[in-house]
Specification:
The complex is a heterodimer of chains A (304) and B (253). Chain A has 304 residues and is α/β, with parallel strands linked by helices. Chain A is elongated and about 80 Å long. In chain B, α9 packs antiparallel against α10. Helix content of chain B is 72%, strand content 0%. Chain B is an all-alpha fold and 253 residues long. The longest helix of chain B is centred in the middle third of the chain and has 33 residues. Classes of the chains: A alpha/beta (304), B mainly alpha (253). Chains A and B meet through α2 of A and α1 and α4 of B.
Chain lengths: 304, 253
């Protein structure tokens, strides 16, 4: 069980994490979703006591991380698979980690076996492929047989086989009753992996719900309209309380409305329609819509 | 004790500490051998076998700085703080391991340099270890290496970057402390109180140097007695180390 209460992290004038509160329950995979720069990694570092919150706190089974005794036995984390000395062997890397928390050398053999790295354990970690590094990181996270596991973007850059392996692995860990928090900027990936979602944008909480709820809520009632009087129609729809986005081709995407409602409004004003089609919005679109206002770096802004 | 074992594993499972140790021994003892082979003007005194310990000191400090800057470079410091969140104890453990190792290398440099000189020179009359000062020239190297490694570890922890930490240490020790004498009037007085000059006084100062030709060997300025010099140098090293602990504890990993 992870519990964030009013978590805030400020770097100078930039607010990376803004009054964030959420809970992560045991026994299920919880996705931690947000666009790049939303504050996911900062939040994870604060959970692990690596970064100090400006205000607020985050508790693991009721305690701050820094007060855990031999914390690797409670919390395992893979924040970055490259956090290994490249000239140290996989085995030596796990050896010192295990030693630091009083874990027996036998456990190192077990986790190496679990992630399938036994044969390359003596090789230097710097020569590992991304997939192998990722497995080594997971082995490190599992060393203390922890109840709580954190993974930051674990499937980034992996091939489909690696992604499937990690996905099933995380679900297996949750099925054993562990608390699993996994961050990602891809909703499609999270929809396959996580049963709960904590969604953030610009450091703020956007939603916490089950994945099914989130997907249904975000993809309902989108309607695509093309009209020569798009401006007029758009303004009327906004007046009625619907959210309207204008696409690059001039078409409007109306959320929160049915195609019947949009058709009626257009007819009442005598607006000509060239297209009126209900959309089953893709997950990615829904996600972008939801976090659209909260993306730290818009493409247009970076093009300045 | 466990954390000492952890830091020992970390240090010995990468290659750079081994290279540094070999280099520290090779440079110091090797140059001493050259001095010994060329010591034709009278008998070689004990202190002359310690002249080159500064080569080893520089290399050992690079090793100590690397021990922490590579942890920052490769992110293993985060894994370390994740495993031991109080931060102070793993860093102190690293300090102990690095200082002990440096002391051992210093011991080998001190005795190795002296021993090789003993084998090489023809006139050993001044080379026997007879007085307390003679022993200080040989064993002192070990103490200075230990203190110097803590100083370098402190600087490395504060700077967090290999290039930055190594340049600061080497530029200060090799250039600043020598060029400071160029400042008119006060330059010499400042130099007397700079850490590596003082450390040098501990190892080389107040030699029973009847066999030493006038003006031979490096200059040994300093106001303090040799042992006072060691206390001064160690205090500075510990101050850097302690400040680095406080900073590492407070800032984000």
């Amino acid at each position: 069980m992870i519990e964030a209460i009013g978590l805030t992290k400020r770097y100078g004038n930039t607010v990376a994490v803004d009054n964030l509160s959420f809970t992560v329950a045991p026994g299920r995979v919880t996705g931690f979703l947000g666009p790049n720069g939303a504050g996911k990694s900062t939040t994870m570092r604060m959970i692990l006591g690596l970064d100090r919150p400006t205000s607020g706190k985050v508790l693991i089974d009721g305690k701050p991380y820094t007060q855990l005794d031999r914390p690797l036995r409670t919390v395992g984390a893979l924040l970055d698979a490259k956090w290994v000395h490249p000239n140290r062997s996989a085995r030596a890397h796990l050896d010192w980690l295990a030693k630091s928390n009083g874990l027996p050398g036998k456990r190192v053999d077990e986790v190496l076996d679990l992630v399938g790295l036994t044969k390359v354990a003596k090789r230097r970690a710097g020569g590992f492929s991304l997939g192998m590094s990722q497995r080594l990181g997971i082995a490190g996270a599992l060393l203390g047989d922890p109840k709580v596991l954190l993974f930051d973007e674990p499937v980034n850059g992996l091939d489909p086989e690696g992604i499937l392996w990690i996905r099933q692995f995380m679900q297996g860990l949750a099925a054993e009753g562990r608390t699993v928090l996994v961050s990602s900027h891809l909703l499609s990936e999270m929809a396959l992996t996580a049963s709960d979602l904590v969604v953030i944008g610009r450091g703020k909480l956007i939603s916490q719900s089950t994945t099914t709820e989130f997907v249904e809520r975000s993809t309902e009632n989108a309607v695509r309209v093309r009209s020569p009087h798009a401006d007029k129609l758009g303004a009327m729809l906004v007046d009625k309380g619907f959210t309207v986005r204008e696409g690059e081709d001039g078409a409007l995407t109306v959320t929160g409305a049915t195609s019947d409602q949009v058709g009626d409004i257009a007819a009442s004003a005598g607006v000509v329609l060239h297209e009126l089609s209900p959309q089953r919005g893709s997950l990615e679109e829904a996600f972008m819509q939801l976090t659209g206002d909260s993306v730290e770096y818009h493409a247009a802004e970076t093009g300045k | 004790m466990t954390l000492l074992a952890v830091e020992r594993i970390k240090l010995f499972t990468t290659r750079s500490p081994w290279w540094c140790m070999v280099l520290a021994l090779g440079l110091s003892i090797g140059f001493t051998a050259i001095i010994a082979a060329n010591s034709t003007e009278g008998a070689m005194p004990v202190v002359a076998s310690a002249f080159t310990h500064q080569f080893g000191l520089m290399v050992i400090m690079v090793m100590a700085a690397l021990a922490i800057t590579t942890e920052y470079r490769f992110g293993t410091i985060k894994a370390t703080f994740q495993a031991v969140p109080d931060r102070i104890s793993p860093l102190v453990a690293k300090g102990v391991v690095v200082a002990l190792l440096s002391a051992v290398v210093g011991l080998l440099v001190g005795f190795g340099s002296w021993g090789l000189s003993w084998l090489i020179v023809s006139d050993r009359s001044q080379l026997a270890l007879e007085s307390a000062n003679d022993w200080r020239h040989v064993l002192g190297v070990s103490l200075v290496f230990a203190a110097g490694s803590l100083l370098a570890l402190g600087v490395g922890t504060l700077v967090r970057q290999t290039a930055g930490a190594v340049s600061i240490i080497l530029v200060f020790a090799l250039l600043v402390e020598n060029l400071v004498t160029l400042i008119p009037k006060i330059g010499d007085d400042i130099q007397k109180w700079l850490p590596f000059t003082v450390a040098n006084k501990f190892v080389l100062g107040e030699a029973d140097s009847s066999g030493l030709p006038e003006g031979a060997g490096p200059p040994v300025p300093g106001e303090l007695s040799p042992w006072g010099s060691l206390a001064y140098f160690t205090a500075i090293a510990l101050a850097f180390f302690v400040v680095s602990l406080v900073v590492a504890k407070r800032r984000d990993a």
